[in-house]
Write a structure and sequence with these properties.
By secondary structure, the chain is of the alpha/beta class. The chain folds into 2 domains: 9-187 and 222-252, Rossmann fold (3-Layer(aba) Sandwich), CATH 3.40.50; 190-221, no CATH class. It has 9 helices and 7 strands; from the N terminus they run βαβαβαβααβαβαααβ. The protein has a 7-stranded parallel β-sheet, sandwiched between helices. α3 (65-79) runs parallel beside α5 and α4 runs parallel beside α6. The longest helix has 21 residues, at 154-174.
Length: 261
């Protein structure tokens, strides 16, 4: 898919690798000047250096209010504007796939610091700039775990459900100022993280990969590019009457079970 983002300035959090890098690369390939942000500076700089368009990298911890505000201010100082802000940075738990009665508070807080607070902080900083300009796109990366019940991931599910309702609240608040706010909710997506869990030979839960995919009508995990193109659609000038929506990119997972009984 090709759209015209020429002259647009975009920020993508968690852009060093995985879904975030695919999003940043896709926006850059369609003409936007993209600011890749992440906490992993060496990988971040490599990603930005290899972008298929105008780009540069900035270190940013989305859970740090000072860093987020400084990065957004620096973007405006350098480029004069911010047109697209994609809150992609997120974490989940590998070591604590347990029921809520055993889930540790420090792990709950770690996940919410990034997955909840990070979306709020990036969205707030972007909204302040975009309201003044009278236009802008904020796109939050949620998850199907925020739309349907999911076991053994209470913190992640709660955080992503919050992202979805935060997205809708932001859309209601910012619509009169010309700022559109939407979310993309990926299903199981093939990344380095999911390889460690399900799709790699040494994945922690590799024996359950097929059981997981039995819920997906398309019978496979998504690709990072498939998520990125949903973001591109929402960023496109043609998507100018879409706000407060969640696009699920999940191979049909939340439509219902694909089993033959």
């Amino acid at each position: 898919m090709k759209v015209d983002l020429e002259g647009q300035i975009a920020l993508v959090s968690g852009a060093a690798q995985g879904i975030g890098r695919a999003i940043a690369d896709t926006l850059a390939a369609n003409g936007a000047t993209v600011v890749y942000t992440d906490i992993n500076e060496p990988v971040l700089e490599q990603a930005a250096a290899n972008a298929p368009g105008a780009a540069h990298g900035m270190v940013m911890d989305v859970s740090d209010e000072t860093q987020v505000d400084r990065v957004v201010s620096d973007i405006v100082a350098r480029h004069g504007r911010l047109d697209i802000a994609v809150s992609n940075a997120g974490v989940n738990t590998l070591a604590h796939r347990v029921t809520i009665d055993e889930f540790p508070l420090d792990e709950w807080n770690r996940i919410h610091d990034v997955d909840s607070n990070g979306v709020f902080l990036v969205g707030r900083a972007a909204a302040r700039v975009m309201k003044k300009a009278g236009s802008g796109r904020i796109i939050n990366i949620a998850s199907i775990a925020g739309l349907v019940p999911i076991r053994l991931q209470c913190a992640f599910a709660a955080a992503k459900a919050g992202v979805i309702n935060l997205t809708k609240a932001m859309a209601i608040e910012l619509g009169n100022d010309g700022v559109l706010v939407n979310a993309v909710a990926p299903g199981s997506t093939l990344t380095d993280a999911t390889k460690k869990l399900f799709y790699g030979e040494d994945g922690a839960f590799s024996e359950k990969a097929q059981q997981l995919l039995s819920h997906v009508p398309l019978g496979r995990p998504g690709t990072v590019d498939e998520i990125a193109h949903a973001v591109l659609f929402l960023a496109a000038p043609e998507s100018s009457y879409i706000t407060g929506n969640v696009i699920t990119v999940d191979g049909g997972w939340i439509a219902g079970f694909a089993r033959d009984f």
